[in-house]
Amino acid sequence: MIxxxxxxxxxxxxxxxxxxxxxxxxxxxxxxxxxxxxxILDSISADISRFESAVSCTEIINESAIESSAVKSxxxxxxxxxxxxxxxxxxDDEHIRIDDLSTHLGxxxxxxxxxxxxxxxxxxxxxxxxxxxxAIRFFFEDVELPQTSDIxxxxxxxxxxxxxxxxxxxxxxxSDESSVSSSCGTTALTALVIGRHLLVANAxxxxxxxxxxxxxxxxxxxxxPSYLPERxxxxxxxxYIEDEYLNGYLSVTRALGDWDLKLPLGAASPLIADPDVxxxxxxxxxxxxxxxxxxxxxxxxxxxAVRFVRxxxxxxxxxxxxxxxxxxxxxxxNSTDNLTVVIICFSSSSPVESxxxxxxxxxxxxxxxxxxxxxxxxxxxx
Length: 382
Fold this sequence. Notes:
alpha+beta
């Protein structure tokens, strides 16, 4: 099933220095990129580490077995996003927020769906901006899915495979894009919701964190040299780690672009674009998910971010305002990077908690000396 090339949509970008707030809708993308095919690089299977009190992704996925029965009701999705340049001289982050993907893609998906992404550029903003502009083409055009009336295991496997291929296609496209330097690259994290199924793909150190009844569930792994399975993979392929930097240069071990650090197409490289993909079935216990660039996670743990957002939603139930508050909190905690976050709520609006009325406090007033004197004179006169 191939999506029609006549994809029509709209794009809205708002920039108010030093704050960047982007709301992404679909664009009319008819640019054709032809790139040589390349085998998908084998990814290292690794345990998902815990972040403080966060529950591991592997545990929660095991609890959420794939159901091949009829699709459960689609979560009532609302989202908000906010981005700030922070202390950096330029804004290299980009993000995508589409709550109603299925209405734009027509018959491509028979089920309600949504799509979100964050990109954290390095070596300049060009790579992240390019991937954002062409995201719909990379992730949804020319994607072949099995004909099925249900979201079953076969369809989910095809979607996972298509997400991985999209990352690699975007990586190859960057190698041929004349407007993007070979020393420029970007990390990438995408979140696709289809029915009640959530798929998160990640290459780099952006992070997705699910809030399940107040507990942080990490849906991605930070690909940094300090993560031992990544360090082992890098060193086995001839790379080296120096001062927690890949080849003494890059702070991540997976990214799109950066072709001056990668080996030719088809060769196993220490720096790869192949993403980890995690999936689970959303339940009534899943309240919201935070996806953000590393400027947030440099100064906040997964659990602290979940706790902060949960309090905000209980106060005003506004994911857009929550996103802004989270960015401002990370800034207050002295983050030195660009700051970008998207908050996706999986439930309909709930009544905002009202504060109990305050008891009226009686104010004690004392008599001035002048008043005392007048009163004393009055009493003495009587």
